[in-house]
Amino acid sequence: MNYGQTEPLTTRLHNLLKDYTDGFTIPKEIIQNADDAGATTVKLLYDERIVKEAQTCLFNEGMIPCQGPAFWAYNDAIFTEDDFRNITKLAGATKKDDSMKIGRFGLGFNSVYNLTDVPSFLSGETYVVFDPHESHLGKSGLKINLNFPGNQLMRNKMKGQFYPFEGVFGCSIVNKDRVHFKGTLFRLPLRNSDEASKSEIKDISYSKSEMKEFIKKIEDGAGNLLLFTQHVSKIELYHLEKDSSSGKPELLMEVSKSSNHSGQSVLQTLTEARNPDAYCTEDIKITLSITHCSKSVCGLDKLDVTVPCIINWSFGQGSSIHEAERNEFKGLLPVAATALTEVPVQNIPGFYKESHLFCFLPLPIKSKLPVHINASFAVQSSRRNLMWRNEDDKESECVEDRWNTVLLEDAGSQAYIRMLTTMAARLSPEEYYRLWPFIFSQPKHDKILTREVYITICKGDCAVFPSNNGIVSLKQSVILCPELTTIKDAGNIALRALRYFVIEEKQKLSNFDADVTIVDLPTALLNNFKLSGCENQINERIVSVDDFYKEIVFPNLKNAFWQKEELDEIILNGILSGNKVILHAIALHKCIPTKPNGERKLPAELIHPNRELANLFSVEEECFPEENKFTKYNTLKVLQNLGMKTDELEWEHLPKRIRSVLHSGRSELLINRTEKFLRYMTSTRDAEQRYQKCPDEIRKELSNLEFLTLQRPPYNWTLPWYGGDNKERPFTSPINGYFPECRHLVGCIKPVVDVNKYTYNSKFTDVLKC
Q1: Which of 151, 211, 187 is nearest to 51 (CA)?
Q2: Is the pLDDT reported for residue 14 higher than 80?
């Protein structure tokens, strides 16, 4: 007794369609199969006709509902015997052993059952029709060689069955002696409401409104379909109205691809090379034309646009090659590619607004990367997701997870790096660095690829860093630390300085080879290197803040490279950095600009412009920091800590405060300085006034300086007065001068000090008493 589990064909197809959903999936699968067959052109047609001649002379009366509106798909390749065998199989993986076919899982044809219950097609001289319900043909399917002698008679007798094919994309069966169609033409009669109510495959019918939505879905994604195809380079979409007077379909859309890669397919080129260094850069142009007829069908306006793209293909170099040799991955190639559009496409109909993953045709999987990623992924049979191990799977039972991981890490990272190498020479640095991947909170596939891109760049000699000396690898690069580069003004100056002294002046940096190039790497990318586990490797190529100041700035303070304002900015950044090494170096170098002429001084040679000592100095002495940036509160506070004088002056320098203006010839200046000097001497220091603590040798030196103004003769003075009218000797010293109260005794023979010249009187006599 025959006994076992069985499953009706219609139930099997019904379950398959849970994976193969309606919409963009159907044309993608049609194009994938055409590409695998080596076709170059695909044509699609929404045909609304109900042809009278097609209602009689059929294989079976049950075929009448299948002779109305249909969706057609043509390609210019002819089925092989293997193709005829494989299309009847539902178990999948019919293309598994053929690495040149992109539809490895082989279930794609079944997606057409979303639209129809009775698909048929003509390829060469062979006609095929499937009827899973066995209610239209009376059997599950039929395959006919139309040129067999008996079948020629059948064609004439049952010409209504073939009548819908007449004239569609050049097809002719009726009244032909011999049939040989140059290509393959699928007819998918649309399931009507009556058929849907009885269908065990799918209970959805396709009215005109559903088909308009279906057509719009195709046009919305058409620009992405040809990016990675190996053979198909043109897709056309047509519409034939129900009551068309001409009977000719109207073109709705055409998308085509031109490429600088001619001859055999890229896959074949890479596979034949079978070389870890095999790669290909393909410059393509995707031309999308949407005609005015689309407006009435799916609401899209007329459009003609050409989008140039750069495709970088790469063969795996290590782990993915070994994995591809495993039996589980037979037929999968360790190949990956990136696609970069050279113009913005976010606002162009027909193109994705976000990056996607591709398995040669688009996958409904978004990516956060700035480019599309294509690879021979292990995908679910529906091609809607990659195969990843989940928490319920045993590690040994999800080998596809391992394949996808090594494919992204190996071939994927190599393709991405090839793209970077290609674009580094074509774009400005600002545009170029936007193409680099970022590791923050990305989907699993992006994160795997991104991390490996950074690791591979660190390991190898990948020329991906633009510089003034061309595109260089990390090993040839010197990178300025982000603590400097992120500062708005100082960062640009520091980078130019590093580049000048290292490249043009040939100044060797410690810890680096002589033959290096300066690279301006954005901080965000530095962080990505570190997040990818490459912190040690990237830090080896970074010039620290300490080294920049020690090796570039301070040894070259007088170099003509520096513009004053730029050197000021660098020094100011060092002052405010809080870095002890830099601050120590600043304290030892004459680098602080002073007013009025910008002469550079040591911090210890500076006078705080807002403190007590400032009264004893003049601007001409170049001892005050330049105003604005160097006189802000925080800057002055640091300079004070580095030795700038504020309220106390060493006793040995005190006499100079008088001498500096003594012979200036400017009496008012000397009078003003004397008054401020007296104020300084009588201010309190450690609970005592300064003059009380003045060393004897300094007091003696001050006593002999002639800085006190002579008094003029009192009113009604009739005797001779010392100094006459004071024009020749207007000043005297403390040791020689007398206070006004002695004028009547000594006025004729000794100098009398004019205390009224000074607004300061407190302790005047104590300070001057010598």
Answers
A1: 187
A2: yes
Question: Tokens standing for 184?
Answer: 């393959």
Q: Does the pLDDT value for residue 309 go beyond 90?
A: yes
Residue from 240, 289, 270 nearest 68 by CA: 240
Q: Tell me the one-letter amino acid at 158.
A: M
Q: Quick check: 191 and 206 in contact, CB under 8 A? A: yes
pLDDT at 102: 45
Distance of CA 163 to the CA centre of its chain: 56
Question: Residue 33: what residue type?
Answer: N
CA angle 572, 576, 581 (to 5 degrees): 95
659, 660, 664, 668: CA torsion to nearest 10? -90
Q: Is the peptide bond before 596 cis (omega within 30 degrees of 0)?
A: yes
Spatial distance between the Cα atoms of 104 and 127, rounded to a whole number of angstroms = 25
Spell out the residues 6+ positions from residue 524 whose beta carbon is closer than 8 angstroms to its own. 438
Distances (CA, A) of 729 to 658, 676, 744: 17, 22, 20
| Residue 106: Cβ within 10 Å count | 22
pTM of the shown model? 0.83
* pLDDT tier for residue 767 given thresholds of 50, 70 and 90: low
Closest to 256 (Cα-Cα) out of 289, 224, 213, 287: 287
Torsion angle defined by CA atoms of residues 691, 692, 695 and 699, in that order, rounded to the nearest 10 degrees: 40
In whole angstroms, give the CA distance from residue 31 to residue 383. Answer: 14
| CA–CA dist 504, 517 (Å, integer) | 11
CA Rg value for the chain: 45
Are the beta carbons of 589 and 553 closer than 8 angstroms?
no
**Under 8 Å between Cβ of 293 and 250:** yes
Q: How many CB atoms lie within 10 A of CB 728?
A: 7
pLDDT in tens, 496-540: 999 999 988 888 898 888 888 999 999 999 999 999 999 999 999
Q: Per DSSP, what are the bridge partners of residue 41?
A: 234
Residues, the chain, total?
Answer: 770
- Note whether 369 and 446 are within 8 A (CB): yes
Strand pairing report for 372-375 and 335-341: antiparallel
Is residue 448 a contact partner of residue 357, using CB atoms and an 8 Å limit? no
Closest alpha carbon to 359 in 341, 383, 382, 339: 383
3-state DSSP call for residue 392? coil
Q: What is the 3-state secondary structure (H, E, C) of 549-589?
A: HHHHHHHHCCCCCCCHHHHHHHHHHHHHCCCHHHHHHHHHC
